[in-house]
Design goal:
The protein has 19 helices and seven strands. It has helices at 2-23, 33-43, 53-63, 69-96, 99-110, 113-119, 125-145, 148-161, 172-178, 188-212, 227-235, 247-264, 268-279, 291-306, 318-336, 342-371, 375-386, 397-409, 435-442, and strands at 392-395, 417-420, 426-428, 431-433, 448-450, 461-466, 472-476. Helix 5 (99-110) packs parallel to helix 16 (342-371). The radius of gyration is 24 Å and the shape is globular.
Amino acid sequence: MQLRANLFVPACAFLASLLVYLLTLLKEPSWGDSAELALQAFQLGVTHPPGYPIHSLLGKIFSLPFTEPATGTGLMGALCTSLAVALLAHLVYRWSQNALAALLAAGFFAFSPQIWEYAVATEIYNVNLAFFALSLWLTIESTRKSSLRWTAAAGAVFGLSLGTYLANLLLIPAFWKALDVPRPRKPIPALLFTLLAGLLGGLVLSWNVLRAAVLPPLGTADMPTSLSGAWHYFSGAQYGTTMLMPLSFYLNRVVEHTAIFARNWAFIGLLFGAAGFWWIHRPGQESQRFWLPLTLIFGIDMGYFTAYRAFDYHTMVAPAYFVFGIWAGCGAAALARLPVRRLLRAAIYLLLAAAMLGSFVTQALPRWERSRTTPVIQSSLKTLKEAPPNAVLAADWSKFTVLLYLQKTRSLRPDLILIERNSALRHYEWGEAITADYLAQQAKARPLLIDGWDPSLEGKFRPLQPLSGGWIQIEALQP
């Protein structure tokens, strides 16, 4: 009976979440990184720093059956997210022995706005979520069974996870703690885990170095084909992540991120998460030994990305959401075990269910309607159709990636040259260029279009006429 429940609970969580994800799956790439990720999966290219080779390699396999590569990479994300949902349900059930709490927590996690957003689009965070969750589950199993085979599997999957998100390196101390590294009598599991993670992680990341010589990464001046270039590329130095900011920046970020996190858990979820944080620390149960590793994962992930200078920092904390989902499920089970009347116990479940359903209902219709349309592709197709022959189109990152995606995957308008509108050096298949300099070189030979006036063009170009979609045709000023 116990074995059936151990399989039934995660299976239900997997199938229910996957069904919803498939019904709301986007049929196109989103602006920006999403289109670039789908394109690089299609052509097995190198993504922007710090590189996501596992996404590109798996995305290529998933996109093969589809005429629209973004459909395949989106499906991959939905499956990966549902796998993480299933593993969350499994861990909550195993530690709480409460199937209802496990399913409610899995649903709350699966349909929180941020996780649902990952799941139905081409993104790296949903793929990373699966590899992270699987490596955590394998690590927990390895300690429970005292099996080096399970430890080896955990290290291997964690190594592969570095090819989905290199920042997972920061979480290694938490995995060492889960493997009881501080105990002098048990160094072998941690050493085996680290060795395999390092070998496989290095192997998959070497893809960026080898492939960049053929298809250079977009959106960066850093080429990982030299020691200095590799350091800048893999560290994401161009994003200024190593720069210290004023204390006020970090204080504001903490307040801002706390509010975002609370909204994603419909506020009431924080109560259940706090209860679970306390409950799994109780002595005499298996979950106690993993209280500190889980806390480390949550704290490192939330802390690092809260201090991250990128504007979309809050989208990068999928592991922290997974850990909090475990706490929320265990918290619901703990609150339901309080010596209270049956009616009050039912009210605890109803509160969690109402919060989960409220989050689900408010998102379901907009996501369903969005999945029936392709505004990104339609807008970009119009731009490609209306562009003058042999023109140079300089667009910001969000539009540039979609235009290039359509040009490459559908073989559209090969006469156009597409470049990213940016004041820094960028690499392309045909060479490298700085936008203003390249536009000046091409001014006499080709029509020049930009998707919005750029201050860096002042004194070098003048606008001729506005075009549809916010595009402007420009010409070079005579020296």
